[in-house]
């Protein structure tokens, strides 16, 4: 049977949407398969999937993937010099800017005053549309924050076929060459080239179900949010993570979590979400996690716990300096929102992510070698732009 599509892309998040847009805008016939569904803007947090391993892992399974619930942080990494031009293109297209001071909330500005070590966080947010509602991680209701939905719209306009609610079960391989994918329900789609972009948890699972080896080296950039009472602060309505400071293997950044409120209520502290101020401590965790077909094992090592402890002490000091009431400080359990690394040993490099199976590529967080410790979205976009360029014979 002759393949109808030049390329099959699996997943519509940071990696999948980028590859699909680049290839279809070059006139290629692209089929994108996404297991989630399209969510109305501002409701994407309903698509959160929470994996309860040792460290709790958060991701979103819907059209646009986890980009729909991102904080809009768009940071470069240094995992390969050949990615530099692709970072530049991505920053231009996403409209990456520093957050203007007048869009920063009053508490963030007070935190800024506490140290000269803060670095502005580059944001892919159009601040002329942003209402500073603090809803980034729920899905932007104002169309201000970039998500890969924009790339998917562009891909569709160039003829890309996007099917949602389609769960890719395995890749089909003949004589060590990919020939297509099989989806739940038994149907298969054929193409000479398949690009897996199902994220760092699901891409290795597709490979494992296909009889290939994958899934070790998981990092998640483990973080905790520490916060306490500052009455009337309204910090929960400020844009999160406007700046950060890197201290060794951890970073600290202003961050609100509704879990802080639950914890304070459990302690019998009378507060509303608008009375709480918080800071995130995020570490470059040891990439010792493992993804299996049904399991995820991700525990903090002793070194991880020590690094979290260092950050916890610094963050607590900053909160007290800010005027947070002593005795009210609580800490949310360790979570990870940047799962990655689980296929990094299967590809040549993030700059050339072909596997040992001919014409089977991977272009998502799973090819980032860990430990990482930075918001990965822009890196995944740069990797995916470069891959598309390679596939189009332009690089
Ligand atoms: C709350 C939160 C805030 C974040 N904020 C930031 C930020 O500000 N900046 C930043 O850089 N990063 C941020 N991240 C992380 C970032 O969003 C992710 O690292 C990035 O989106 C991962 O891209 P990806 O392409 O690897 O996977 P995803 O974007 O997760 O996309 C994978 C897609 O594949 C689909 N899929 C999975 N399995 C299958 C299957 N079997 N068949 C078909 N489809 C499948 C999924 O439904 C999903 O749509 C945040 C994450 C969270 C949870």
Task: Describe, in plain words, how this protein is organized in 3D.
The protein is of the alpha+beta class and 395 residues long. The protein folds into two domains: 7-95 and 141-217 and 339-391, FAD/NAD(P)-binding domain; 102-121 and 220-336, no CATH class. The protein is built from eight helices and 22 strands. A six-stranded antiparallel sheet has the order 6-15-16-17-14-20, sandwiched between helices. A hairpin with a 2-residue loop joins strand 9 and strand 10. Helix 1 runs parallel beside helix 8 (377-391). The longest helix has 21 residues, at 302-322. It starts with 6 loop residues before the first strand and ends with a helix. Bound molecules: flavin-adenine dinucleotide. Flavin-adenine dinucleotide is lined by residues 10-16, 33-36, 58-59, 61, 65-67, 69-73, 137, 167-168, 197-200, 202, 206, 337-338, 364-365, 375-378, 380. Flavin-adenine dinucleotide binds at residues 10-16, 33-36, 58-59, 61, 65-67, 69-73, 137, 167-168, 197-200, 202, 206, 337-338, 364-365, 375-378, 380.
List the helices and strands and how they pair.
Layout: E1 7-10, H1 14-25, E2 30-34, E3 48-52, E4 56-60, H2 84-94, E5 97-98, H3 106-113, E6 119-120, E7 122-123, H4 149-157, E8 161-164, E9 168-174, E10 177-183, E11 188-190, E12 194-196, H5 199-209, E13 216-218, E14 223-229, E15 243-247, E16 250-254, H6 258-266, E17 276-283, E18 289-291, E19 296-297, H7 302-322, E20 330-331, E21 335-336, E22 360-362, H8 377-391
Helix pairs in contact: 1-4, 1-8, 2-8
The structure holds flavin-adenine dinucleotide.
């Amino acid at each position: 049977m002759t393949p109808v599509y030049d390329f099959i892309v699996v997943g519509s998040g940071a990696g999948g949407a980028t590859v699909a847009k680049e290839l279809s805008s070059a006139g290629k016939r692209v089929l994108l398969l996404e297991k989630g569904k399209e969510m109305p803007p501002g409701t994407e947090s309903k698509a959160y999937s929470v994996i309860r391993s040792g460290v709790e892992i958060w991701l979103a399974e819907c059209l646009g993937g986890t980009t729909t619930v991102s904080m809009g942080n768009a940071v470069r990494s240094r995992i390969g010099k050949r990615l530099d031009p692709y970072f530049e293109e991505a920053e231009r297209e996403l409209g990456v800017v520093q957050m203007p001071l007048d869009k920063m909330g009053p508490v963030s500005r007070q935190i800024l005053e506490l140290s000269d070590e803060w670095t502005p966080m580059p944001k892919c947010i159009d601040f002329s549309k942003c209402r500073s509602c603090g809803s980034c991680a729920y899905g932007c209701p104002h169309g201000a924050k970039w998500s890969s939905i924009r790339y998917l719209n562009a891909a569709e306009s160039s003829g890309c076929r996007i099917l949602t609610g389609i769960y890719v079960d395995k890749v089909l391989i003949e004589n060590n060459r990919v020939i297509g994918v099989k989806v739940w329900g038994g149907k298969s789609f054929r193409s000479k080239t398949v690009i897996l972009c199902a994220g760092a948890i699901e891409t290795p699972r597709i490979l494992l179900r296909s009889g290939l080896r994958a899934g070790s080296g998981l990092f998640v950039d483990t973080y905790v949010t520490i916060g306490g009472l500052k009455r009337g602060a309204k910090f929960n309505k400020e844009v999160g993570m406007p700046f950060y400071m890197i201290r060794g293997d951890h970073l600290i950044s202003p961050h609100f979590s509704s879990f802080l409120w639950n914890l304070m209520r459990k302690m019998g502290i009378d507060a509303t979400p608008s009375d709480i101020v918080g800071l995130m401590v995020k570490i470059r965790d040891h990439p010792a996690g493992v993804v299996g077909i049904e399991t995820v094992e991700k525990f903090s090592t002793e070194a991880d716990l020590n690094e979290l402890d260092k950050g916890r002490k610094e963050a607590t000091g900053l909160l007290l300096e800010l005027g947070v009431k002593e005795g009210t400080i609580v800490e949310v359990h360790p979570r990870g929102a940047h799962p990655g690394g689980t296929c990094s040993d299967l590809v040549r490099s993030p700059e050339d992510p072909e596997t040992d199976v001919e014409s089977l590529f991977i272009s998502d967080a799973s090819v980032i070698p860990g430990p990482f410790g930075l918001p990965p979205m822009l890196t995944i976009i740069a990797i995916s732009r470069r891959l598309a360029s390679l596939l189009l014979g332009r690089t």
